[in-house]
């Protein structure tokens, strides 16, 4: 599992339902029957901002992620990409 | 850019978070009816006969609407046998059209090739066929005559229709644990996913638990087998109490009752879990003001379950953090205290406690009993012939004599003649011919 | 200390403590006990 390329562009998979929670969020993929727990509200903000952001890096910055924490969030996005919660899109 | 900096990321253990509950369940079990064409000996819901108070089609749709609003992702529709409800297919379609993923649990009775084709066309439906033996002999002992045949026919029809990822769900017992490899072979044969689940002393399961629950050696065998098969075999997280053996099995590894899951029963009662159908675990009813959502959010029972639980007697055990004290329902129905070991605690603490228990007469009983009055159930053919067995009564020496017989020789037999010299009156003797006092 | 209190206390350098994908945890929808 690798972190996603910060310059790539992403969007939520259309079969994914997002349920915000106090601790972060629940993501359920109706196609794969997999559940992902986002354990951080900032990560939720990043995920929700992905389709509007030019790049993953931009989405992280818009959500207020500090530079030193960027790798952590890119790794988390990588996990979500691998389980097809996220889909890559044209930049 | 003047965006406010986000707080530094920190992850906490999900398990600890979920124990405090959520605003809506993640998934839940919905028993649609207590009616069933079978009478499995271990039925957790003591099903068989429909309850006259069952939710109507409109009431069911209202529940689905609520589940959609609450974003409940997945519902296991069971029963009884859910497909015997006339509106089953309508409700199934309604749920999937309203963003509620459905799995339904069935004995396969209605899974014809046509039905299988329809199911194969709906991406949001999962089907789970119940099977408790890899052979008819083992299966039918628990589930009744021809139930194995019915299940396998359903599996064949689903496979032929191109259905993918349908499940075969097994309740593990003393009798079928030797068949684990055979179950896997059956699943592979039909392109199905195998699911092994825990037998609990719930419903009619309480009556057969002593006889059918796995031995400690079999539990260990089961655990090792599950570890070897990894994510290939599902368990519904029903074996989290076995994580005390070593590595945890896949799943959340926690009791979800009232926290991430619950049960809605056929009459709208909401229980913490389908294995705990008892007043002690009854949170409310969906017919109440505020519907299901209010029960889930405001029920005092659920608030209690969502408060931090002390381990009680278990908290000093080094394995408590992994096994979490085991299954609440298993403890409750075997009469063990909820803040102590599971009856099948892998360290043996539960077994020890059960042995010390004074008597089994005071055990809590499953609320309500919808079991068929006769076993096996009669054919549901409406106005068909009543099945009778005609035979001779071996204890009768002569045809029965009516109490209204006027003939003084009625009931006369040779034996009777010998007794003639005694003081017994003829009236007393007459019944020796054998009057049937009960119908067969 | 209750278990919920234990979780809230930050400790040391957060960067060192956070594992690769600890912000995301995944499980099958079948992984919840109480759904038969």
What does this entry look like structurally?
The complex is a heterotrimer of chains A (91), B (440) and C (36). By secondary structure, chain A is of the alpha+beta class. Chain A contains three helices and five strands. A three-stranded antiparallel beta sheet of chain A has the order 2-3-4, covered by helices on one side. A two-stranded antiparallel ribbon of chain A has the order 1-5. The longest helix of chain A has 13 residues. The model of chain A has no long low-confidence stretch (mean pLDDT 95). Chain B is built from 16 helices and nine strands. Chain B has a nine-stranded mixed beta sheet with strand order 6-5-4-3-2-1-7-8-9. In chain B, β2, α3 and β3 form a beta-alpha-beta unit. The C terminus of chain B is likely disordered. Chain C has 36 residues and is an alpha+beta fold. Chain C is elongated, with a radius of gyration of 15 Å. The N terminus of chain C is likely disordered. Classes of the chains: A alpha+beta (91), B alpha/beta (440), C alpha+beta (36). At the B-C interface, β1 and β2 of B face α1 and β1 of C. β4 of chain A pairs antiparallel with β1 of chain C.
């Amino acid at each position: 599992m690798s972190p996603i390329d910060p310059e790539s562009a992403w969007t939520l998979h259309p079969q994914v339902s997002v349920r915000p929670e106090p601790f972060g969020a629940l993501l359920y993929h109706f196609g794969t029957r997999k559940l992902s727990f986002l354990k951080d509200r900032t990560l939720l903000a990043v995920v929700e901002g992905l389709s509007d952001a030019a790049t993953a890096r931009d989405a992280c910055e818009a959500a207020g992620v500090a530079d030193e924490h960027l790798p952590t969030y890119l790794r988390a996005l990588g996990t979500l990409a691998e389980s097809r919660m996220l889909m890559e899109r044209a930049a | 850019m003047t965006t406010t900096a986000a707080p530094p990321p920190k992850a906490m253990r999900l398990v600890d978070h979920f124990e405090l509950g959520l605003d809506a369940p993640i998934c839940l079990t919905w028993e649609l009816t207590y009616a069933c064409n079978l009478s499995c000996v271990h039925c957790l819901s003591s099903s068989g006969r429909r309850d006259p108070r069952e939710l109507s089609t409109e009431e069911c749709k209202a529940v689905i609407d609520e589940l959609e609003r609450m974003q409940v992702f997945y519902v296991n529709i069971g029963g009884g046998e859910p497909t015997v409800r006339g509106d089953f297919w309508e409700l199934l379609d309604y749920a999937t059209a309203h963003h509620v993923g459905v799995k339904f649990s069935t004995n396969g009775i209605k899974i014809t090739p046509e039905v299988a084709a329809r199911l194969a066309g709906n991406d949001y439906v999962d089907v789970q066929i119940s099977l408790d033996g890899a052979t008819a002999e083992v299966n039918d002992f628990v589930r009744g005559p021809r139930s194995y045949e019915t299940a396998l026919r359903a599996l064949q029809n689903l496979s032929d229709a191109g259905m993918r990822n349908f499940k075969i769900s097994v309740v593990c017992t003393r009798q079928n644990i030797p068949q684990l490899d055979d179950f896997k072979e059956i699943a592979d044969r039909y392109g199905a996913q195998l699911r092994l689940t825990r037998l609990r002393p719930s419903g009619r399961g309480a009556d057969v638990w002593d006889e059918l629950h796995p031995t400690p050696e079999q539990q260990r065998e089961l655990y090792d087998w599950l570890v070897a098969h990894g994510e290939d075999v599902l368990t519904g997280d029903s074996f989290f109490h076995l994580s005390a053996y070593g590595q945890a099995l896949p799943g959340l590894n926690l009791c979800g009752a009232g926290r991430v899951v619950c049960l809605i029963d056929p009459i709208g009662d909401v229980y913490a879990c389908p294995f705990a159908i008892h007043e002690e675990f009854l949170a409310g009813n969906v017919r109440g003001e505020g519907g299901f959502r209010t029960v889930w959010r405001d029920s005092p029972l659920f608030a209690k379950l969502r408060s931090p639980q002390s381990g009680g007697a278990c908290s000093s055990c080094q394995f408590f953090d992994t096994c979490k004290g085991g299954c609440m329902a298993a403890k409750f129905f075997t009469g063990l205290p909820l803040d102590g070991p599971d009856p099948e605690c892998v360290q043996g603490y539960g077994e020890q406690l059960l042995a010390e228990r004074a008597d089994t007469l005071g055990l809590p009983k499953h609320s309500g009993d919808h079991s068929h009055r006769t076993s096996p159930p009669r054919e549901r053919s409406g106005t068909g012939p009543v099945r009778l067995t005609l035979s001779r009564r071996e204890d009768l020496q002569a045809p029965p004599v009516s109490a209204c017989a006027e003939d003084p020789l009625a009931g006369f037999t040779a034996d009777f003649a010998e007794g003639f010299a005694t003081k017994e009156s003829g009236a007393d003797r007459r019944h020796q011919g054998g009057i049937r006092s009960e119908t067969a | 200390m209750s278990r919920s209190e234990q979780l809230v206390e930050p400790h040391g350098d957060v960067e060192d403590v956070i594992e690769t994908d600890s912000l995301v945890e995944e499980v099958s929808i079948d992984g919840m006990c109480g759904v038969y």
